[in-house]
Amino acid sequence: MGSIIQLSAADGTQVPAYVATPASPAKAAVLVIQEIFGVNAHIREVADAYANEGFLAIAPAMFHRVQAQVELGYAEADMGAGMALKTAVEALPAPGALQDIQAAIDHAHASCGGKVGIVGYCWGGLLTWRSACQLNGLSAAAPYYGGGMTTEAESARQAKVPVMAHFAEEDKWISMESVAAFQKAHPAAQVFTYPAHHGFNCNHRGAWQAEAAALAKQRSLAFFKTHLLGGAH
Questions:
Q1: Is 167 exposed, middle or buried (0-12, 13-18, 19+ CB in 10 A)?
Q2: Catalytic one of 64, 107, 198, 227
Q3: How far, in whole angstroms, is CA 109 from its chain's centroid?
Q4: What is the mean pLDDT of residues 82-93?
Q5: Structural domain boundaries of the chain?
Q6: Quick check: is 106 catalytic?
Q7: Is 112 in the active site?
Q8: Could you report the per-residue pLDDT of 124-164, keeping only the tens digit for each?
Q9: What is the third-level CATH fold of 2-229?
Q10: Which of 112, 122, 133, 202 is catalytic?
Q11: Which of 171, 197, 202, 227 is catalytic?
């Protein structure tokens, strides 16, 4: 189902992306933004699952500007490596890797001619939030436990598109107080919390919580169908 393509960013950088294509021609697209573990087996599975729902799914390699072909697991050493790579990407001069997401949006529009949504997990959730506020061509954004997006600086941004945010009530990195403050600052956003830990969507991790993952996916799918397909189910 999936293949690797090269996206052309505005500065000329070629960025690889995993693309999953649905069986029937896609009427809309969903970008899948990785955690700090690269475009690994889990992220490819997430993209495949969106393709199975009829969306063109594109997962750009968000570490490519600092290191090519990153694919990590979830052990402590992987966590450390991923955090270091994330720090390196965050240190890039603006717009940094956001232009790679813009390239993916542009490619999605050109490929399917429909609307484009974005979903991201952990660091990818933060990038999803920033994309909703800063990039062009999106129609909906669904960040999952976006690390840092509830900080004052990030929460001060204003989304240009509808947002559905998913958070974990037992998250050691994102406090429920900060989630409440985010919700207050963005009353138009749909904010859901789940009795789970950070990373609950990933069935490759110990934090996986099947019920929470299924409910969040069901809500995200309905959200994307409403905003990308005009409510078609």
A1: buried
A2: 198
A3: 17
A4: 98
A5: 2-229
A6: no
A7: no
A8: 999 999 999 999 999 999 999 998 999 999 999 999 999 99
A9: Rossmann fold (3.40.50)
A10: 122
A11: 171
